[in-house]
Amino acid sequence: MTDLSSNERRVLTALADRDVATAEELGEATGMGRGPVEGAANLLRDRGLVEIAETRETDHYLTDEGETYAREGLPERRLHDYLEENDDVSMDELREVDGFEVGVGHLRRKGWAELGDTVEPLGAPEGTDERALEALAEGREFKEMDALEHLRERGLVERETHRQVEIRLNEAGRATAEDLDGDDDVVGEIDHDLLASDAWRDAEYAEYNVEADAEPRHGGRVHVLRQLADRVKEVLVSMGFEEMEGPHVDSEFYINDCLFMPQDHPARTHWDKFLTEEPTHVDGLPDDLVEAVEKVHREGAEGGEGYHSEWSRDVARRLNLRGHTTSLSVRYLSRNPEPPQRYFSVDKVYRNDTLDPTHLLEFYQIEGWVMDRGLSVRDLMGTFVEFYSRFGIEDIEFKPHYNPYTEPSFELFGRHPGTDELIEIGNSGMFRREVLEPHGVDDDVEVMAWGLALERLLMLIYGFEDIRDVHGTLCDLELLREVPVLWR
Ligand code: PHE
Question: Is cis: bond before 247, omega within 30 of 0?
């Protein structure tokens, strides 16, 4: 039985002398203390060497006030004694007797006196409360719980419950203890002294109990949102898309102007953007493209009128944190690719929103666009149906919408599995000619595009109701540790 730990050996050896003992007694006998003894006893029980019986005992003892009354009598008893010894006692006279304040109520309730012009004593047999006081004061057992409870309510008695653990050696345990023969000296932990003293050569070592329950250790794991982002990328790649990359801090030119957002339009502040402090502006925007974009703003593109409003290059040069990743789509369009093309990104965007269960200042957008001849809204919707079905979501809904840069435009909604509410999960549309023309896209080529919220997809899949549980400063670590891994 070398796989007994040294604590188990010590408990078993101590138990061999007495067969049965409480954890408290063994804690003292071994010097281990009660807690470790109970731990070792549990292991010994699992090995079938001891039996453990747990009992709860309730002790009652007198408070200081209880002790005083045990010595001097309850105040109502003292008042009664006074009435017996004196005739025609008035209330005022009784009030002078020690213990009046506390005792008079009990005197009346117990029916020990008649209260009139004078206070006359009646019969006052000894009650269970007095016998309980007496018994506790003398250290005798008292079993009438009602009386004890009553005294406890009067503040004369206190109660304490003890957990007793009784450990009993069984036959197998006795045999094992005899085998040990007092040899409880097993090394459980190797320390410096052992190694330095050479004693390690002959020492007997405890074996590991690999079946024992162990404390959970939380190592690192991939955050659930990152898991989903990776999965989204895989799905889009499998659908034939290529990934885009680009700056988080970008010029208004790519964030807004290229998307035919007029510079004086409320939509330019509608992102509630974050501006940079240093540097504030970018130099070296591509001249040709800037001119083409300005022209579209002023005069319009095929079939449109333009805005005929102010347009300034300085506004276009202003830097801010991107409020959408459509800036990346524009950057990739500006490379003048030949159709067909499919691009995506899953990346962070920044908006100065008000924090609530569905809004953070930063979130991830699943951006994408497809360029081809003869594309229509059916292709756009079909792409979403396909994409969301890869995540088990089969009931997305579309709502007509407005964006300055797409026509027609659609918002996407999905049903939250927990609350059953429709939540907005994305925005999309067909890019207008005003967006495409500056890049020299042919008239018969269409581009469909979208921005979907990764966090909202997460909420639909996992049923999370508050995005702040999942990321941000208030996130729920326990939730993140325990959320199941769905992919890979
Ligand atoms: N930029 C839009 C948003 O952030 C999404 C979008 C992208 C809409 C491309 C249409 C086309 O809501």
Answer: no
Q: Which residue has the tokens 């009435």?
A: 83
For the cut 90, the answer to whether the pLDDT of residue 163 exceeds it is no
User: CA 424 to CA 452: how far, in whole Å?
Assistant: 9
256, 377, 403: which to mutate for ligand 1, most atoms within 8 A of CB?
403
Gap from CA of 417 to ligand 1 centroid (Å): 25
Q: What percent of the chain has pLDDT over 70?
A: 98
- At 416, the amino acid letter reads H
What span, in angstroms and rounded, lies between the C-alpha atoms of 421 and 220? Answer: 34
Helix segments in 127-223, DSSP class H: 128-137, 145-153, 171-180, 192-197
Q: List CB contacts of 110: < 8 A, sequence separation 6 or more.
A: 76, 124, 127
Q: Residue 473 gets which letter from DSSP? A: T
- The tokens for 424 are 């907005």
Q: Give the atom of ligand 1 at the shortest distance from the alpha carbon of 429.
A: 10
Rounded distance, CA 186 to CA 204, Å? 5
Res 422 pLDDT > 60: yes
Nearest atom in ligand 1 to 451's CA? 5
Q: Are 45 and 51 in contact (CB under 8 A)?
A: yes
- Full-model pTM: 0.61
Instruction: Kindly report the average pLDDT of the chain as a whole number.
Output: 91
Kindly give, in sequence order, each residue whose CB lies less than 8 Å from that of residue 460, ignoring residues fewer than 6 positions away: 391, 393, 414, 415, 416, 417, 423, 425
Residue 228: closest CA among 390, 368, 351: 390
184 within 8 A of 13, measured Cβ to Cβ: yes
Is 82:114 a contact under the CB 8 Å cutoff?
no
Q: Ligand 1: which of 450, 454, 455, 456 to mutate, judged by most atoms within 8 Å of the beta carbon?
A: 450
- Ligand 1 neighbours, Cβ below 6 Å, are 324, 326, 403, 406, 427-429, 449-451
Residue-wise pLDDT for 108-162, tens only, equals 999 999 988 899 999 999 999 999 999 999 999 888 889 999 999 999 999 988 8
186 contacts: CB under 8 Å, gap ≥ 6:
2, 4, 5, 6, 9, 204, 205, 206
Burial 342-356 (b: 16+ CB within 10 A, else e): bbbbbbebbbeeeee
449 touches 326 (CB < 8 A): yes
Confidence tier at 19 by pLDDT (50, 70, 90): confident
**Which two structure tokens, joined as six digits, stand for 419?**
């609350």
